[in-house]
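Collaborator request, handled under Task 6.
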Amino acid sequence: MRFRSRYKTARCVLRFEDQFLLAIHSSFRARSHKRWGLPGGNIERGEAPADAVRRELEEELELYLTDLTEIGAYHYKGNDHMVYGADVDYRISAYDDTELLDLNWFDMRRLQTLDIERKLHAGYELQAVRQFIALHDY
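Structure tokens returned to the collaborator:
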């Protein structure tokens, strides 16, 4: 069944031990402002958000996930963005440099600092990480 998603993008909180993966996407704005965001990207026409985030993670990180936790929708720039989460077994370091400018792992303390310094791309990243922790570490 083909449908138009109500979400613009699908993103993913990726956790390895006590750190979370953020990326700088290769958009013009990212080049000039270097803000960190969650991996993921646009949802194509007829694509379910979970399928979109899996596809984007495969394209950007060569990461193949089957188990995703739905974290929820977040509003940014007039659109809703669906966020998922997953634990990974290793520190991802390789990425497609045509899609991403940089990739790094951050602990909660550093994520909070990035948030205060307004260096997070959409502004909901820290909230999504906290929600992922709450869902998994109850």
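The cover message to the collaborator said: "The chain has a mean pLDDT of 91. The two ends are 36 Å apart (CA to CA). Please let us know whether this matches your experimental observations."
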